[in-house]
């Protein structure tokens, strides 16, 4: 398996593959791979001829007081995982290689970037859209795979690709969870024993919200209130946000609305801080909301 | 020659050409072609295997009080010109084809967009960068050709391509002028007889500015003052801006600075309103500033 560090070499590899008529699958990551990333790699290997995994901790998407410097890294382990998953290339450029000049250009999807994680991380999604745009131009994939754990990110990338006529198909894959329901995340390693024991409450509360919504008894305003009360009572955790929005438009539905089967597709999404560590999770509810989660212990991930 | 109106058909054509190992040249325009566009087509036909001309009057780059609706159009004539210049395809999509959904995504190069034409046309260059980004993704050219008459646009596109790692080479070609020096523009047709007689004063004043700068006697602050006085005295015309900036950074040099041979590359650029019609022109001065203009009556356009 190749480890490529230069933009020009990555582009040359992609040109060659395309000239040979091969399809390229792409899994962009910040490294420190977990089962969620593995499921993306597995989908890509299954559905394209040649898979590229990128590892790049992108400074542009971190705010000044965020965890850029302490973001976990383990390239050796990541390369071994990529290899055993069947990837052909790991693209792992330096920051200088990705940003050799002062960046003047930004790709923005402001209408999808202001809410949820964008509210507490201003500029974050501009950084994401810009770096993914760069990576798409370098890797030139036919398909790119994103996890639904970062549902807002997936919605933004899908809209960017549609709006800018980028020639790549975006595939979104179910969130992969520990057996107790905690969504896989590179940041989970920072949890203390006590925090780790509490953290599955995020997903348990999301399953409760889905049940409440699907019962079609209460308007979502009431469900939101009950859910926020529950999250605010969590031990050693501070609620950042808990929202129910239309997906993928991320617009706030009328709070007096009740779910009607087959008519809505909503996302219930939350972010909670455990000390310095901020975890996010979500579930999709309603039309086409099937198969958006898979437990580590089994189940077939169906990417859409 | 093909006239293509659909994004999917344009993309299929480009894919086919690339699969055949052909290089694609691209000349994006808003139509109503003049000698300036012809010189771009000619450079593309000479230097690539297959040339695409696009005609698209892009609503995104027009302000609410600008001339979108009255922008001149003559597709039949444009197609004939493209054909006789040796283009293989005219890509002429409708607004609905280019913007089938509400646009949420913007590509911006704010540090190069606030001055010169950007100051009096807020949002204009965001619209340009966004539509050129879309067109590049659709046409997938190896090289794209832009005229130096729109020097700020060329600087923005070059920086966008560099920052976002777009896989296309940007070529800039000299401004083509009438025999009396007036820069070719689709908007020249709106000039009255009197305005048309006055309009060459823009270029005459620019040549004067170049001479003053190259004499290295006066600081640019003084030259600017003399130049603005001259333009403000023009008949039936209103000065919008006259600036001397570093090129392509578009930063304002120290006004006390005098030119030093081989050390600077500056642009002198101005915009003047003749009634409803706004004309722009510029010259490059200093290092590598050769060959940025060519008279219709002869001369070899050397695109860089």
TrEMBL record, chains A, B:
Statement: the UniProt record of this protein carries the keyword GTP-binding: no
Localization, per the record, is: Cytoplasm
The family classification in the record reads: Belongs to the pantothenate synthetase family.
The subunit field of the Swiss-Prot or TrEMBL record says: Homodimer.
Instruction: Name the gene behind this protein.
Output: panC
Please report the name of this protein according to its UniProt entry: Pantothenate synthetase
Source organism = Marinicrinis sediminis
Q: Pfam families given for it? A: Pantoate_ligase
Tagged with keyword Ligase? yes
User: What job does this protein perform?
Assistant: Catalyzes the condensation of pantoate with beta-alanine in an ATP-dependent reaction via a pantoyl-adenylate intermediate.
């Amino acid at each position: 398996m190749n480890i490529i560090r230069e933009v020009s070499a990555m582009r040359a590899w992609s040109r060659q593959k395309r000239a040979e008529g091969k399809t390229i699958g792409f899994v962009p990551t910040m490294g420190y791979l977990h089962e969620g990333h593995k499921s993306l790699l597995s989908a890509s290997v299954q559905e394209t001829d040649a898979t590229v995994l990128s590892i790049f901790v992108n400074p542009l998407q971190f705010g000044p007081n965020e965890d850029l410097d302490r973001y976990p890294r383990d390239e050796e382990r990541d390369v071994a995982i990529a290899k055993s998953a069947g990837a052909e290339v790991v693209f792992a450029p330096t920051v200088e290689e990705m940003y050799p000049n002062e960046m003047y250009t930004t790709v923005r999807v402001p209408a999808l970037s202001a809410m949820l994680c964008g509210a507490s991380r201003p500029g974050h999604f501009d950084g994401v859209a810009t770096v993914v745009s760069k990576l798409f131009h370098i890797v030139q994939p036919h398909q790119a795979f994103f996890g639904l754990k970062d549902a807002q990110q997936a919605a933004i990338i899908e809209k960017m690709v549609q709006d800018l006529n980028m020639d790549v198909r975006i595939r979104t894959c179910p969130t992969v969870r520990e057996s107790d329901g905690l969504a896989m995340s590179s940041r989970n390693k920072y949890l203390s024993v006590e925090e780790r024991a509490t953290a599955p409450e995020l997903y348990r509360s999301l399953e409760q919200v889905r049940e409440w919504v699907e019962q079609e008894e209460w308007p979502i305003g009431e469900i939101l209130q009950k859910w926020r009360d529950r999250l605010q009572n969590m031990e050693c955790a501070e609620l950042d946000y808990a929202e129910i929005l239309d997906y993928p438009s991320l617009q706030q539905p009328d709070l007096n609305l009740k779910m009607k089967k087959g008519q809505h597709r909503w996302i219930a999404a939350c972010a909670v801080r455990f000390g310095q560590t901020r975890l996010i999770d979500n579930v999709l509810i309603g039309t086409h909301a099937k198969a958006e989660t898979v437990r580590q212990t089994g189940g077939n991930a169906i990417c859409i």
